[in-house]
Amino acid sequence: MIYDVIIIGGGVTGCSIARTLSKYDLNICVIEKEAEIASGTTKGNSGVVHAGYAAQREYTKRYLCIKGNKLYTQAAKELNFPFERIGSFVVAIEDNQIKELEEERKKGTEDGIPGLELILDKKKIKEMEPNLTDDVVGVLHAPSAGLVSPYELSFALAENAAINGVKFFRNNEVVKIKHQDYTFTVRTYHGEFQTRNLINAAGLHAARISKMLGLDYFSIMPRKGEYVLFDRNAIHLNKILFPMPTKVSKGILVCPTLHGNTFAGPNAQNITDREDISTTTAGLKEILDGGRKLVPNLPLRSSIRNFAGLRAVPDTYDFIIDNTDIYGFINVAGILSPGLTATFAIAEKVVEFLELLGVELNVRDDYNPIRPKPERFKDFTKEVLDKKIQEDPRWGRIICRCETIPEKEIIDAIHAPVGANTVDGIKFRCRPGMGRCQGGFCRPRVIEILSREMNKPYEEITKRGEDTNILIGRTKDIALKEISRGVSKE
Amino acid sequence: MKKYSVDVAVIGGGSAGLAAAIVVKKSNLNVLILERDKELGGITLQCIHNGFGLHEFEEELTGPEYVQRFINQAIELDLAYKLDTMVIEITSDKVIYAVNNKEGLIEIKTKAIILAMGCREKTRGAINIPGFRPAGIYTAGQAQRFVNIEGYLPGRSYVILGSGDIGMIIARRLTWEGCQVKAVVEIQPYVSGLIRNEVQCLEDYGIPLITSYTVTKIHGKDRVQGVTISKVDRNFDRVIGSEKFIECDTLLLSVGLIPENELTREAGAEISEMGGPVVDNNLETTMEGVFACGNVLQVHDLVDLVTAEAKRAGLNAVDYIKNRYDKKIERKEIINCIAGENVNYVKPDLINQSDLSKDVIFTFRVKRPDRRLLIQFKDDKNRIIYKRKRSYVIPSEMLEIKLNLNEFNIDSNIKSIEIEVIPRPEVLIEED
After folding, report:
1. pLDDT, tens digit (0-9, with 9 covering 90-100), for A46-68
2. Which residue of B lies nearest to A275 if distances are taken between CA atoms?
3. Between the N and C ends of chain B, which has fewer C-beta atoms within 10 Å?
């Protein structure tokens, strides 16, 4: 079979394109190299939906960000992913920074960012965000900025795309692409896929994919950002807090999460290894020092996890969204910040390109834009909860005690369209292992459920795909092997 | 929604919960244990090594043997319990909401509650080790569960970070399984678990204990391939140039335990800085009629000590129901107990003035090891109430002192008692 469109990359960009295209009567598939979608740059993202003032006017990303921000309202309604417009502050701590903020406000307002406001009344600022440093002299308040969970957004997009007919092939790393007779043949370790139109949304690997077709006009640099996550009881912020931006980055922010935690980060470190999500002592110190400039009482003792994410930074420092010289091959590369915000605008741009390529875009009769909200134990009232457990006792068996996740949510995550097949996949979908104990209690139980639902032995259950098995075998196995070896030596 | 009404609900059916519930049941009150796991016994069930019961039964038992004695007693007494039952809320008027897969949501009205939820292990995030996020990193307790309960091995060659008791015990257990434990790495200059475990679990098996070192990097992308350890100085800053690489496929963390008090906090009880609830000399939290015992209150060295504490909590809950429940007795003036020099924490946090005629059991830990010491109790005017000599102290050993404060002619207006562990002045020459 020849697909109409193949998307390489199951990050938020690929999923968003897939979902937008799933509206049309097309045969589409997404090819992802990891065991789960949203495993690359999407996973280690701040989850901030930016207002759009930060990127300078010469960049496409500025305009796609401003547009993308607006598209979130409708998308969140349809797809039911966690999203809240809580607003952001850019924090000035020196008087001479105020002018800069006013400049941003003026330009941003001209470009259509709603509600931008410069606040100089310190009392008012502290009322809005009591944890902010006393050194604040003024803030740029952007009420349209918000928080989204990037991976939950991706899961919602993928699920909705899948029920509208998009196929997802995970564990399929692209090794070769051939282009002949207006057909692309994409080879992975596990198979071959053919398509008329090929979209490269391979994130950090986008330049490599483009090169497979001989297009070598950009490069992607991995830039690492480290984060520190704090326990939800430790501190509570109302606003996303940015320092004054520097040339390379928006700086280390301190930000609440949708789940009530707080994080600080990211720093910015150019690296060479595209999979290096290691964290460093110096980096963590940098984050805590940076974070404390905004929130002096950041509770170090309550940090529950540190992690790093990678941004796919193109040499142009701007999004590379091109209908390339190869007919039918579209690059969607270098989607660095504010790529998450721009994601719906980027997908619309791809639709325009496909139209230009002459792809017939007829809306499917059975298109369903709604992805129902996953049912969550925590959202139920006591009455509903009782009813739910009576209907399905698996609601009553709590697997993760830190986050109160019942067996039913985990089973739903496994059997959802494009569902979880690894321990991390479950963790990112419904949070067991995200809490204070970081899986200490629930991991054996999650393995038990995965093993049962996927009909696989314990040893084959992985953390996040090939070579990340959690258990190596039954007890006595090693000892018995040693003994038999000893005997044969004699 | 199913509704119940009991005299005492005990949250947690491990060693603490069982001992407390049995005491209550024997006083002919109506008691119910709520256990979130599928069987009674708690974490002691996965501690299949011996060394339990020396205080309580004067014989040496394994963990499961020890706790089974309590389970048997509970069954003989026809003690009520619910398994697979997770408490999701405790209200300020002591109503408990819990769920299980048989009854759905249940509401339990209580006169008194005993908190016995135990503790959890600290994890990697809390100690911020840099490196990748490969498979092969577990807490020691998790590994213990995999090996002893599930019957699976998490890896072949191990480095264990932290010389907590569980870490040392699992090191021996894994060695028996034919696995290789390359080293136990401890950031402090001394072992953090009990000396007997250092001897019996590490020395006897030739497992190196590397003190004043910590893991500074984890190698491997998919699976752990090794760790870098570095020497640390007095301030725990790493000494540049001291890095050593150790090849292993699994890193276990045994970096300490913290009381599990999310429910307690949400219920509105005050939590002390070390993580356990604030309790008075009756083990009663700042919520009237809500008691705490076992590792949810403070992390104990030995399960026998948990049992003893739990029995006290049970008796105090009984006393509360019989003498104070529904009587609106105002809390009398209280005395704060303060951790002074080289003391990490003290339980109880508070003493009721009205209880001064009773024995008060003080439990506390020191911050660092030391020798030739004086343990002193001072009041808020710096007057010494009580002192005792001690030849050595180590953080891994919980200290316990039972005092009847009335015997020491203390000022009736004192607001606080401070406990300090200080070097013994040279003039005192007799040894204890």
Report:
1. 899 999 999 999 999 999 999 99
2. B221
3. C
Q: Which two tokens stand for residue B209?
A: 């204990």
Q: What is the pLDDT of residue B162?
A: 94
The three-state DSSP-derived secondary structure of B289-357 is CEEECHHHCCCCCCHHHHHHHHHHHHHHHHHHHHHHCCCCCCCCCEEEEEECCCEEEEECCEEEHHHCC
State the smallest CA–CA distance between residue B116 and chain A in angstroms: 15
Q: Is the pLDDT of residue A440 over 80?
A: no
Do A107 and A53 touch, CB atoms closer than 8 A?
yes
Q: A122 falls in which pLDDT band (50, 70, 90)?
A: very high
- Best CATH choice for the domain A1-82+148-219+315-373 from the list 3.50.50.60, 3.40.50.300, 3.40.50.10540, 3.40.50.2000: 3.50.50.60
A422, closest residue in chain B (CA to CA) = B135
Tell me: the pLDDT tens digits for A398-426? 999 888 999 999 999 999 999 999 999 99
Mean pLDDT estimate for chain A: 92
CATH 3.30.9.10 fits A83-147+221-312, yes or no: yes
Q: In the prediction, which pLDDT does B333 show?
A: 82
Determine, for residues A478 and B216 on separate chains, whether the beta-carbon distance falls below 8 Å. Answer: no
Residue A431 — very low, low, confident or very high, per pLDDT cuts 50/70/90?
Answer: confident
CA distance A330 to A320: 10
Domain range A380-460, its CATH number among 3.30.70, 1.10.3470, 1.10.10, 2.40.50: 1.10.10
CB atoms B217 and A278 under 8 Å = yes
Domain ranges of chain B: 2-120+258-329, 123-255, 335-423
Tell me, what's the pLDDT at A372? 95
Spans of chain B, pLDDT less than 50: 126, 432
Instruction: Decide if A473 and B84 are in contact by the 8 Å CB cutoff.
Output: no
- Going by DSSP bridges, is the β-strand pair A303-314/A220-230 parallel, antiparallel, or unpaired? antiparallel
Best residue of A441, A447, A452, A477 to probe chain B, by most B CBs closer than 10 Å: A441
Cα separation, B278 vs B1, in Å, equals 33
Pairing state between β B384-393 and B359-366: unpaired
pLDDT at position B107:
97
Q: Does A305 sit within 8 Å of B146, measured CB to CB?
A: no
Burial class (CB in 10 A: 0-12, 13-18, 19+), A337: buried
Identical fold, B2-120+258-329 and B335-423: no
Amino acid at A83: F
pLDDT for residue B432:
47
Alpha-carbon separation of residue A235 from A261, A262, A463, B310 (angstroms): 8, 7, 30, 33
Q: What is the CATH number of domain B335-423?
A: 2.60.40
Angle made by CA atoms B241, B245, B247, in degrees to the nearest 5: 175
Q: Where do the domains of chain A lie?
A: 1-82+148-219+315-373, 83-147+221-312, 380-460
The dotted CATH code for B123-255 is: 3.50.50.60
Fold of B2-120+258-329: FAD/NAD(P)-binding domain (3.50.50)
For residue B222, the chain A residues in CB contact (below 8 A) are 466-468
Residues in chain A: 490
Percent of chain B as helix, strand, coil, to the nearest 5: 25, 35, 40
Does B101 contact A at CB distance below 8 Å? yes
In whole angstroms, give the CA distance from residue B403 to residue B417: 12
Q: What angle do CA A386, A392, A395 make, to 5 degrees?
A: 65
pLDDT tens for each residue of A344-355: 999 999 999 999
How far is A206 from A192, CA to CA, in rounded Å? Answer: 19
The pLDDT value recorded for residue A232 is 80
pLDDT of A385-401, one tens digit each?
999 999 999 999 999 98
